[in-house]
Specification:
This protein has 11 helices and 14 strands. By secondary structure, it is of the alpha/beta class. The structure holds adenosine-5'-triphosphate and magnesium ion (MG).
Length: 312
Amino acid sequence: MTDAIVVEGARKRYGEKQALDGLDLVVGRGTVHGVLGPNGAGKTTTVRVLATLLRHDEGSVRVAGFDVRTHADEVRRRIGLLGQHAALDEGLSGRQNLEMFGRLHHLGARRAGARADELLERFGLTDTGRKAVKQFSGGMRRRLDLAASLITDPEVLFLDEPTTGLDPRGRAEVWASVRTLVGGGTTVLLTTQYLEEADQLADRISVVDRGRVIADGTADELKGKVGGDRIDIVVRDARHLAAAAALVPGADVDEDRRLVSAPVADRMAALTRVVRDLESAGIEAEDIAVRRPTLDEVFLHLTGEPKEAVAV
Ligand SMILES: Nc1ncnc2c1ncn2[C@@H]1O[C@H](COP(=O)(O)OP(=O)(O)OP(=O)(O)O)[C@@H](O)[C@H]1O
Ligand SMILES: [Mg+2]
């Protein structure tokens, strides 16, 4: 079976600005692929090219087996898009909005109504289906957006920063909805600035910076590129920081958090040793944990510069 999305060397310029600079991307069918990058990395440009809303200058771009340039109609018939900004009618109810989208996509009145009810149920919106959208919470709106993008049962769904601007509860609601979706076999390409979001939802992640992919793989593979596990020690008394750091080679010290963090080769052995050494040095720890590196640390490592724009 062919891959759902294949991008090879895509380039796109806006005037002087090289927004895509040789972007490569392969997304297997029925998987969730995260495109992770800071503001201006080229995420929306990528989605717009894939969704046939924007023509790229160079390279090859195929979606659902069709070239977006030569077979745009075939591509459009098979995709759904959730843009960075929603297109809901505030005065209409959730159900009416979905029915309207159905009619716009040439479903008959009966079929559009049935599809609306089906999607409201699937996204836990049945109770709110009759309320006007202007009374919806941010999370509910986003879920309704998602439902609307699924009206035509697309093979490939593009979600451009689906949770930006939502509070943690709204974000959790949208994550749950995306998981529901994937169970149905839909391929999802999701852009995000949130490392945690890519970690939570995506099977594979492409880290994008300045219009090109600087790393890709599963979240675990990306974390593995930075090295193995790390040990974090939070000391109770900041005056013990230096002594604690001396116990673990290669330690970073964060004074504000009273934290010593260091790479370790063998997690269990390191943990046992550190607990014992802290005790014999008379250093009291508030917390000790062995963990995988965060995607934040991965990004820093890959780009070699602080990435202010990427939030956790
Ligand atoms: N219509 C346009 N005209 C000129 N430059 C543009 C246009 N659209 C985007 N750009 C520039 O191209 C680059 C990539 O933009 P893009 O919107 O794809 O980034 P993004 O990763 O989606 O960022 P964000 O996280 O802010 O949504 C940016 O430097 C942006 O300023
Ligand atoms: Mg964008």
